């Protein structure tokens, strides 16, 4: 019996890991923006209160911060700020992606 239990435990743990990844993907929305400079794909995870996107060939993951209007996410260097169907990306208070418009918004 102990041998069977030892053999089954790794499969149970792997199943839990797969389930958590599956739930994480379900809770993430993929948002497609068209900015003045280039397109931007943003993954929004409301349960983790974060967004992620690729900029300068690196994955940027930003946590939700305080905002008087709209939604603001930051990592201390980059800021993704969205309001309605538009967004802007800043790097150290300088706009790097401007006039980003959400493509095919769901209403």
UniProtKB/TrEMBL annotation:
Keywords: Lipoprotein, Membrane, Palmitate, Signal. The keyword Mitochondrion does not apply. NCBIfam families: PRK11372.1. Residues 33-94 form the C-type lysozyme inhibitor domain. Signal peptide: none annotated. Gene3D superfamilies: 2.40.128.200. InterPro entries: MliC, MliC_sf. It comes from Trabulsiella guamensis ATCC 49490. Coiled coil: none annotated. This is Membrane-bound c-type lysozyme inhibitor.
């Amino acid at each position: 019996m102990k041998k069977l239990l030892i053999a089954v435990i790794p499969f149970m743990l792997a199943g839990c890991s797969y389930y958590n990844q599956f739930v994480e993907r379900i809770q993430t929305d993929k948002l497609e923006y068209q900015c003045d400079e280039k397109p931007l794909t943003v993954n929004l995870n409301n349960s983790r209160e974060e967004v992620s996107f690729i900029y300068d060939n690196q994955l940027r993951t930003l946590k939700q911060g305080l905002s008087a209007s709209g939604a603001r996410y930051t990592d201390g260097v980059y800021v993704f700020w969205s309001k309605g169907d538009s967004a802007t990306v800043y790097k150290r208070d300088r706009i790097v992606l401007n006039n980003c418009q959400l493509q095919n918004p769901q209403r």
